[in-house]
Amino acid sequence: MNTKIIYLVGYMGAGKTTVGERLANLLGETVYDTDKMIIEKEGCSIQDIFSRYGEEHFRHLETEILKETSMLKGVITTGGGMVLKEENRELMKSSGTVIFLECNPMVIFSRIKGDAERPLLQNKNEIEFSSLYEKRKPYYEKSAHIIIDTSNSSIDEVVSEIE
Ligand code: S3P
Hints:
binds shikimate-3-phosphate, Rossmann fold, 8 helices, alpha/beta, 163 residues, 5 strands
């Protein structure tokens, strides 16, 4: 398994960013976040990209950024939809170790509902949010070398399990 890069994949709100930051710290590595890199490169927020140019354009930017990160070394945290394209799944799997942070969408929803920074969360109730997760779950599973169930674990427990 290629451990030059550790990719964290999973649904929005699953804790990828927090786990990624702590993990990178622990391993003495750098953390890169694909959403943050897109925001920096485009000079506007994710919700602005969605509302001005649409989701498809965002997905294109996401793949371009992923190609850049695949040449780096460190921990890479990805947006919740990164696994949707086969091209992205293959690139991650061949250039690093992919860890899926599995979660309970009901628990996540109560924590992140109302977050205006996540366009795909807008106008969704708990059932719709959970059903999007169920649709995506096979893609998270397909993309991953390792699956970690985070539902009953603290961030520290998840980080030490990965370590
Ligand atoms: C998305 C998740 C977001 C962000 C964008 C789309 C998704 O990232 O990439 O809003 O399709 O699930 P987080 O997983 O960090 O919320």
